[in-house]
Predict the 3D structure of the following.
Amino acid sequence: METKTPFKEIIEEIKEAGGDAYRLCYQCGICDVVCPWNNVRNFSIRKIIREAAFGLTEIESDDIWRCTTCGTCPEKCPRGVDQIELGVSLRRLATNYNVFAASAGGVKAARGSLTTEGNPLNEERAKRADWAKDLSVKPFTEGTEVLFFGCCYLSYDSRMKKVAMATVDILNKAGVDFGILGTKESCCGESIRKAGDEEVFKGLARENIKTFIDNGVKKIVVSSPHCYETFKKEYSEFMVNFEVVHMSQFLLELIKGGRLKITGKYGKKVTYHDPCYLGRHNGIYDEPREILYNIPGLTLNEMASTRNNSLCCGGGGGRVWMETPKGERFSDLRLEQVRAVGAEVLVTACPYCITMFEDSRLTLELDDVLEIKDITEIVQEVM
Ligand code: SF4
Ligand code: SF4
């Protein structure tokens, strides 16, 4: 395929995004060995790094859109190369040139919706708080202790709205003083940034930061590990600092502090999937497990790939908006691992993971034998 981009420019772009880290790569190939793509098809991030170092990247290629930013290869690289940042810089370049491979069409659509409506799902901003209409949820005002930031999926997606409702139920029962910002919220911007659109990310981040400051937000509880990552690590680039807590951490805090009582039993075999942005990216492995250990009757069977070796669901890095052909879905492989440990329920703590797994559950016709649950839904059932 013809290389349309000037070599020098790619090299400069890479330098800007990842410094000189790619120079450290000595082509050992460990990143390719650990990358989940190589369970389903050939894909070489090592080769992409090599080509980028020489300015030979084909920005028209599907391959630059493949990395789910799962975080496995940066953990294993003996030379400390940041493959994710290098990959994102290539997408940034492709976005600047408005060159999108056929597989990345969903990113373009998400970008349009994020720009006009503040969410990637082509939904109206005016309807962002509709899920909470019949619930006891107050608008966040100055002095409220906690902002519950539910994310775009919990606000609009019919499956994920159940998680939003379970969360509200739990927060109310625990007597937490919380509120939502509803139509004033925008997408956190994590995935569009990883998909290479820095401009859209910055616009969303500035809108949210202004809203948080104008409304006196100090503590934010999030359901999505992607919001957690962005609010905690990326919004600080704008010289702000909010206390950010993932719902799995908050739940454990409520249970340990005696504010949330577990009264029921959960007599099922479950397994827990570590979402990439909760586990590998943020080191939150123990809190969700501790919650599950606190539930009487629940049997937790761990899968072969767990904690920092967890198998990615396939939805990060903007891939949740892209179509992945059957036979190449990591979520299908993950459900095989779930079945192998005899679990009746797959528990996780991320809206992207749930979306990917629910899709696989349907296409693999496992609806009768397997449930997919967010950890809040399990807790709601036993309190
Ligand atoms: S693991 Fe690191 S050093 Fe080895 S090929 Fe990959 S990026 Fe290069
Ligand atoms: S971050 Fe994950 S998906 Fe991306 S190249 Fe590395 S191992 Fe593969």
About this structure: The chain has a mean pLDDT of 94. Residues 198-214 form the longest helix (17 residues). The first strand starts at residue 138 and ends at 139.
